[in-house]
């Protein structure tokens, strides 16, 4: 059950406040600005217990409100010309081979969406003046999401952004349809260090969207070119290649809590899969603590969230800042590669893609250490 509230006077969801031009404070560029606000209910979109049981994607006759809101806002900005190109016109192909990697030709795509950070380390102190979104943010901000006080979700069409809110921002150089950034409202206090609260909020977006095509991505490595916390998300018409490969279950007491841990098999980058049969909150607790441990050890990684927030794939990576070998994004780890030139696109083949993935994969000994750490954390949290 979702409700919509109208405050102030009649306010169009796609209309933005011109007061953006008045807000120049880098510490709080959103002060005094109102936007559509989607509030999550205290009860899950599906199910009715505290563990968020029964939240897996379902086929519904009606589109969820959050799914409709996101797509309508994103498409509105597309019609207004805020996108640098039409991603639906980008040529895409499956690369010949057993893994069916995805190659996309997008000559206008830029991987450096934010101001580049040149320091040769992963975790950087936050500098508000390096976040160029503060300088350009206007109609790119689609709406905000935050925890609500009511049992059911609701949409407030004009509201100040709460301190615990997340900004849903258009990515003007999309990799796929509906490409957005999910950025905590208090990003000017947060480096890119992932915590349980931020991961739960990002996964909650996927739960309430309730669309099996929706994927959320998080990257923690020097190649991310930004020194604050953010997620990305978009829609995929087909599963990513990593979602087709077999997995090997890892047994432990976490299974009693409805959590599955598997090792991804027959894939060039070593990865762990975490899946909740019912208990969403334990899944978030386990994965966020694992990620925090990796961050404390300066281990690069990417995270792919799918199946409406109930499935997470962790791709630990070697830390590299060389010009020849760069850390890969979560969608690249998943098997989707964007090429900026026709020449590179035409030459794309499975062998070279496998080499790129293998180059940033942990060696067996290091991966086993990550696997052991993950199982230890899962065992403690599930007991």
Automatic annotation (TrEMBL):
The keyword Transferase applies. Its main location: cytoplasm. It comes from the Eukaryota. GO terms for cellular component: cytoplasm. GO terms for molecular function: GDP-D-glucose phosphorylase activity; guanyl-nucleotide exchange factor activity; hydrolase activity; nucleotide binding. Residues 66-234 form the GDPGP1-like N-terminal domain. Keywords: Cytoplasm, Guanine-nucleotide releasing factor, Hydrolase, Nucleotide-binding, Nucleotidyltransferase, Transferase. Residues 241-379 form the GDPGP1-like C-terminal domain. It holds the Pfam family GDPGP1_N. Transmembrane segments: none annotated. This is GDP-L-galactose phosphorylase 1 isoform X2.
